[in-house]
Amino acid sequence: MSVGSKIAVAAALPLVVEDLALAFGGNKVLQGIALQLRPGEITGLIGPNGAGKTSFFNCLTGLYAPQQGRMRLGDIRLDGIAPTGRAALGFSRSFQHVALCPELSVVENVMIGLDRQSAAGWLDAFLPLARGRQERARNRELALAALARLGIAQFADEAPANLPPGVLRLAEIARAIAGEPRVLLLDEPAAGLNSVETRDLSTALMRLRSPQLVMVVVEHDMDLIMEVCDTIHVLNVGRLLASGNPAQIRANREVVRVYLGDDDE
């Protein structure tokens, strides 16, 4: 059984954050954040610029070490686990700016996301060893499956320079899901997309919803967030302002005042 298959059949694990605090010097970036991110849901994380959303993602992936609080995946304490260790536990993320290698095809870019699961060493890259050939064939198969899940398998052998932003964004997400992660963190996936591309992204995200996957989306496009998310958490100046389903967030007066705005004004 492949590593991806082992993760897929593992018990679904919630990602739990308790009393998280992060500061840089005297600047308090996150204060007392406590929430549970549940598998099987798409969770939205919204708030004004500077609210602490990306810093929160960086704490989850181990790039930042919070000064206070605890994080755990199920019963697994994440304190002290480096980003590589968290990736091995099934954490994967995308970034606001698409970063595909222009010299590689789309499917080869997606295969990069499987490097942490690869057993072949540098020697396999230079010599025609059977293990290296088999692993590359397997990784290509997994990468093609990820592209197919997002509806862009027809672009597998294209160069990134030949493709529109919407396809490139989906290719980056395919790279993030190729290894069947347990936790998928998407940082502003709709950035730079037009309305048609955003609609395709919305369809793709809902297709990715899985009982085994914790999926969290940071996004400023409120139409997308309200359409795809089951639960939404709102950050403001580093604090958790509100949590609820889309209808509850729309009806929250404080969220409307601070972030969503009033359509009647």
List the helices and strands and how they pair.
Elements: H1 3-9, E1 15-24, E2 27-37, E3 42-46, H2 53-61, E4 68-73, E5 76-77, H3 83-89, E6 91-94, H4 106-111, H5 122-126, H6 130-149, H7 165-177, E7 183-187, H8 195-208, E8 214-218, H9 222-228, E9 231-236, E10 239-244, H10 246-251, H11 253-260
Parallel strand pairs: 3-8, 3-9, 6-7, 7-8
Antiparallel strand pairs: 1-2, 1-4, 4-5, 9-10
Q: Mind explaining what this structure looks like?
A:
Mean pLDDT is 88; it is low at 1-9 and 119-127. The protein has 2 domains: 16-90 and 182-265, P-loop containing nucleotide triphosphate hydrolases (Rossmann fold, 3-Layer(aba) Sandwich), CATH 3.40.50; 97-180, 3-Layer(aba) Sandwich (Rossmann fold). By secondary structure, it is an alpha/beta fold. The strands form 2 sheets. Strands 6-7-8-3-9-10 form a 6-stranded mixed beta sheet, with helices on both faces. The longest helix has 20 residues, at 130-149. Helices cover 38% and strands 23% of the residues. The protein contains 11 helices and 10 strands. The relative contact order is 0.18. The chain has helices at 3-9, 53-61, 83-89, 106-111, 122-126, 130-149, 165-177, 195-208, 222-228, 246-251, 253-260, and strands at residues 15-24, 27-37, 42-46, 68-73, 76-77, 91-94, 183-187, 214-218, 231-236, 239-244.
